[in-house]
Structure formats: C-alpha cells, structure tokens
UniProtKB/TrEMBL annotation:
GO terms for molecular function: oxidoreductase activity, acting on the CH-CH group of donors. Signal peptide: none annotated. This is FAD-dependent oxidoreductase 2 FAD-binding domain-containing protein. The keyword Oxidoreductase applies. It comes from the Eukaryota. Keywords: Flavoprotein, Oxidoreductase. Residues 8-370 form the FAD-dependent oxidoreductase 2 FAD-binding domain. It comes from Aspergillus fumigatus (strain CBS 144.89 / FGSC A1163 / CEA10) (Neosartorya fumigata).
C-alpha cells in the first residue's frame, strides 16, 4: 500500500486523474500526476464538456416529479451495455458500483465540493420500447458552470494538497513505458520523454519534440489518460463492425483535442494490463465542423430538440425511433448503411430560437459563466443563443431559403 514515502504515480491530469489525486490526498497518500500536456490543459477533455452528471433518484429529480430508482437505473444500464462477453465480468462489476454510487452518494459527494445543478435533461432515451435500452427517465444533471465547474471542484483541492506536499505535478512528461517489478509483477513506475515547454492555449495541439528523459518510481501506477476520441487511426482500427456495420465513415469531426490519443492503452497492455472491449465505442451523429476550430477537425454537437425534420443524405426521413438524443448508435448504424457520411436538419428560425443548442462549455456562455441574465435571454429570447446565431452566420453548411407559401 502507498504511504507518504511511496507516492502513487497517476498518468493523466484530466478529471479522472484529479479525482484520484483528490481521494488519495484525503487519505494522506502522496501522488505524482504526470501529463504530456501543459498546465493549461488541467482537467483534460472534461473542461470542454457540458458537465452532465449521471445521478439516480436525486433531489432534483424528485423535485421535478421524476420517479427513478436504483433498480430502474441498473436495468437501463445493463440493457444499454449489452454485456455478452466473457471479458465483461469487471465491466459489469464497475457498472454496478457506479450505479450504486450514483444512487447513494453522487449528489451529496459533488454537493460538498460546491457543485450545483441547473436542470435535469433526458439524454440517450434509447429505442423507445418499454423494455428496451436507454434511459427510461431523465438523469442528465446539467452542472451550473458546465465542465469547467466540475474540473475546478477537484482542481482546487488538489492544488491545495500540492501546497502541502501531498501532490506533485509533472506537466510535459510523456509516458512511453510502465515499469513492472520483475518479481512481483506490480507496476512500480513510469519512464518516458520530457517534451519541450509550450505556451499554446488549452486544447490547441502542442509540440511533441523531446528535450530529455525521465523515470519516476512509486508504490503503484494509476492510468487515467482518457480514450481514443482524438485518434482517428485507432477509431478506424477498432471500428465495431458487428454493431455498426462494415461501412466506416470517411469523414469525422472530433469533439475532443488531439491529446486524447489513446497512447496509454497499448502501453498499459504491454505492461500486462487487461484491455477489453476496444471496439465498444460511442459516436454522436449530430456533429458540425466548428467554424472557429481550436483543435484539428474540431466538431460541435448539435442539440436540436424534437421539432427539426431529420433527413438522410438522399432526402428520406430517418425511421423511428432514430431521433436526436434517442438512440445514437442505432442512428449511426443507419446513416452508415446509406453509403453517405452526412444527414440534414430541416428547420425554421422559430425552431432554432426555441430548441436549437450547441453542446460544450464554450458554446454555452450563460451556463458556463453562471450568468442568470444570459440564461434568461436564452429562455425568453426570440433569436437563439449568441453562439447559435454566430454559427448560423459563419458556418458554411447552414443553407437558407424561403419556404413557398
């Protein structure tokens, strides 16, 4: 077990790494956080998120009359995950533990850190059948302050722990190898390259020029480095043909920065880690190319509401229950089967003003900035949010026209 003299080496300074360091510091256990990016990217991809939190039977749900339960959430999760492999033992155990935590502790745990929710939405409703997969009730708790507020809830205490000597940051340290003890088989450290300093802003792709090497030892190694969303080569390599069909889209937009590259997956595998379900991936189908990109192929997800007419590339309406926010993977499978990589939303200005929204912290300055004035303008305004209006003007694939009377 780690002690003050034997730190835990955490690979990744994203939200998972911060939560791990926070929990360890609360137990008076030292940790060293290693990340290939600069301090500007502390919190990782969570910073760019809308800050949705999965809670079950929360006070917010009960206040809104939403009837939820541990049993219903567990049934929904297992139906959606479709655990059907021998390697699904630990994923199943993780799912059970997470749903239990989301039911018993999530709301109070985050509340103690100052996190508040502004609404409860209904993300991924599923197939529309009573016994089908998806969320049977709204569980998407939108954080007041979006992703940055979630990041700061943990970054603040971790920085305070660093002042006490319980946490050490090693930015611009890129791990190439996990050191394994030859006798015990335990992971006892990492080694890799020190990357040159950079002053690029958060999310911008940074240099990979090496200026030295490093090695760190500890009592254990915790890999919290994120997935493959910024690495299209790995996405295509592990494309789930059995679930999404053989047609791999040729064009993608990316909702995460380039540093979400999945490097640590193979590095962990080489060190003896059990890597399972590499083909179980998630892709949103309502993506737009950002007119003002921060990272390569920067995409923004549309949250269009129910009134838009959704057509495939040939002009045919998508079949039920393939509506925005309902059954993402089934929608993706259908779109791929058409032979095209795109679809159309047909809507008018009234629908845009009342229903259209863009996902991500930077696209929602009212909620991210905790501005009640801007939030009221969103609710009662007649033109849509500021970012939506800008997209309408500057995005080259927004086509306008008059409807014949």
């Amino acid at each position: 077990m780690a002690t003050n003299d034997q730190p835990v080496v955490i690979v990744g300074a994203g939200l998972a790494g911060l939560v791990a360091a926070y929990e360890l510091s609360n137990r008076n256990i030292r940790s060293i956080i290693v990340d290939q990016e600069s301090e500007a990217n502390l919190g990782g991809q969570a910073f760019w998120s809308l800050g949705g939190i999965f809670c079950v039977n929360s006070s917010n749900q009960r206040r809104l009359g939403i009837r939820d339960s541990r049993e219903l959430a567990m049934e929904d999760w297992f139906s959606s995950a479709a655990f059907d492999r021998e390697t699904d033992h630990w994923p199943r155990k993780w799912a059970e533990a997470f749903v239990n935590f989301a039911t018993d502790h999530m709301e109070s745990y985050l509340g103690a850190l100052g996190v508040r929710f502004v609404s409860v939405g209904w993300a991924e409703r599923g197939s529309g059948q009573a016994g089908g997969h998806g969320n049977s009730v709204p569980r998407f708790h939108l954080t007041w302050g979006t992703g940055p507020a979630i990041v700061e809830a943990f970054a603040g205490p971790v920085k305070e722990a660093a002042k006490k000597g319980l946490v050490e940051f090693r930015f611009r340290h890129q791990v190439d190898e996990i050191i394994v003890d030859g006798e015990t088989g335990a992971a006892v450290g990492v080694r890799g390259q020190v990357l040159e300093p950079t002053d690029v802003e958060r999310g911008v792709a940074s240099s990979r020029k090496s200026v030295g090497y490093f090695e760190l030892r500890g009592a254990a190694v915790l890999v919290a480095s994120g997935g493959i969303g910024g690495n299209l080569d790995l996405v295509k390599k592990y494309w789930p043909v059995d679930r999404l069909g053989p047609k791999v889209p040729q064009s993608f937009v990316l909702g995460v920065p380039a540093h979400v590259d999945g490097r640590m997956i193979d590095i962990s595998r080489k060190a003896g880690a059990s890597v399972v379900n590499s083909d179980r991936m998630w892709h949103y189908t309502e993506g737009l190319t950002n007119w003002n990109p921060i990272w390569p192929k920067h995409g923004i997800r549309v949250i269009p509401g129910p009134s838009s007419l959704w057509l495939d590339a040939t002009g045919k309406r998508l079949p039920p229950f393939l509506y925005p926010g309902c059954d993402t993977l089934a929608t993706l499978r259908h779109i791929c089967s058409t032979g095209y990589d795109y679809t159309w939303f047909v809507l008018n200005k009234s629908i845009i003003a009342r229903e259209f929204a863009l996902s991500g912290s930077e696209q929602n300055p009212d909620i991210t900035g905790k501005s009640i004035l801007l939030l009221l303008q969103r609710i009662f305004g007649s033109n849509g949010t500021g970012p939506v209006q800008v997209f309408m003007k500057k995005w080259r694939r927004f086509h306008r026209g008059d409807v014949p009377e």
